Structures are given as C-alpha cells and as structure tokens.
Amino acid sequence: MTSLQPKAKRGGNPVGFETHDHAHCIGTAISAADTLCEQKALRLTPVRRKTLEILLQEHRAIGAYEMLDHLREAGFGSQPPVAYRALEFLVANGLAHKIERLNAFIACTHPGATHSPAFMICRLCQSVAEARSTHIGGSFIDAADAVGFQIEQTVIEAEGVCPACTQEAKA
Questions:
Q1: How many other C-beta atoms are found inside a 10 Å radius of the C-beta of residue 35?
Q2: Domain ranges for the chain
Q3: How far is the C-alpha of 47 from the C-alpha of 118, rounded, in Å?
Q4: Entry pTM
Q5: What 3-state DSSP class applies to 142?
Q6: Are 45 and 167 in contact (CB under 8 A)?
Q7: Beta-bridge partners for 25
Q8: Rounded to an integer, what distance in angstroms lies between the CA atom of residue 41 and that of residue 125?
Q9: What is the DSSP letter of 110?
Q10: Residues sharing a CB contact under 8 Å with residue 41, sequence separation 6 or more, in sequence order
C-alpha cells in the first residue's frame, strides 16, 4: 500500500503528499514509539498503541470523535475520555500533534525528536504534511525578546493546495 508524501526540502523531511511504502512507514513508527516509551519508562497501553496505529494507518488528521468511532470498532469502549486520554498521551510524549486549524490529530513523523513542526494543510482534501521547521522568522523572535518572552515551542500551520488536488484541478 502506498500513501502520498511531499519531497524533502530545505525545512526538513516533510511527510504527507508523496508516494512511499505505507506498511514500512507504520512499522517503523510503531517501533520508534516502543523504543521511546521504553527509554522514558512510559506505558504504551493497548488503547494508546491502537490510537497511534489508527493515526498512522489513516495518514491524515483525525478528530477525537472520529478516533472514538475507530476505537469503538476495535473494542476499546465508546466514552469520549477513552479517545481523549490516548490522544493526550501521544501528543504529550511527542508521538502525535494536534492540528489546531482542523481541531484534529496526526501522528508525528519525527517521534522523539525535539522539533518545531510546520504543517501544510490542503484546503480542498484536508490532507496534512508535516515538516520540521528549522528556524522561526526573525521578527517573531525579536517580538518575543522585546517583551521578555521565552519561546519554548512553535507550530506553524499553513493552508494551501496539495500536489494531488493541484493535479486534479489541471486535469
């Protein structure tokens, strides 16, 4: 099975729009999650693992209630806290990100790495690609410095049109 992923550019290794080996992608990410949890003495419980697997299988941002539907189908209960707690654990431990623009979650493509993600969100199909943001604009840092604010984390969300939707529009 393949999925669409963007090509690597100056900002890191974006993932989300270019064809790749999807089964290998999932296996590698689950292995990285196991290693990270072992190193940090965290428990990747069955519901947390399944939540991560679903995010990886879908390769798109998923809202909490859609995740709850997937978890219910997998036999993990139907109460919202089931999905929210699993998603919160994944985000808190660098295994997933919350896409504020969509109020949804996506598996992290760089699990365990300290990074400031940049998300490219297709306004037509809602697909999302993640890249590492290698630097923040100088004026933003200058503004934070001017008020004595210490930036600990940034997330960039950009809306546009993905390659597949661009191609479809040209056809």
A1: 12
A2: 2-170
A3: 27
A4: 0.78
A5: helix
A6: no
A7: none
A8: 38
A9: S
A10: none
Angstrom distance (rounded) from CA 89 to CA 141: 29
SS3 content of the chain, % helix, strand, coil (to 5): 45, 20, 35
CA–CA distance, 62 with 103 (Å, rounded to integer) = 8
CB atoms within 10 A of CB 73: 10
Residue type, 142: D
Cβ atoms of 83 and 66 closer than 8 Å: no
* Residues with Cβ within 8 Å of residue 146, at least 6 apart in sequence: none
60 is written with which tokens?
A: 């798109």
- How do residues 110-153 score in pLDDT, each as one tens digit? 787 777 788 999 988 888 888 877 656 667 778 888 899 988 77
Chain mean position to CA 18: 16
Which amino acid, one-letter code, is at 92? Answer: A
Query: Length of the chain in residues, anyone?
Result: 171
**Which is nearest to 108 in space by CA: 43, 33, 168?**
33
pLDDT of residue 8: 33
In sequence order, the β-bridge partners of residue 131 are 118
Please report, as a single letter, which amino acid is at residue 31.
S
Is the Cβ–Cβ distance between 5 and 18 less than 8 Å?
A: yes
- CATH assignment of 2-170? 1.10.10.10
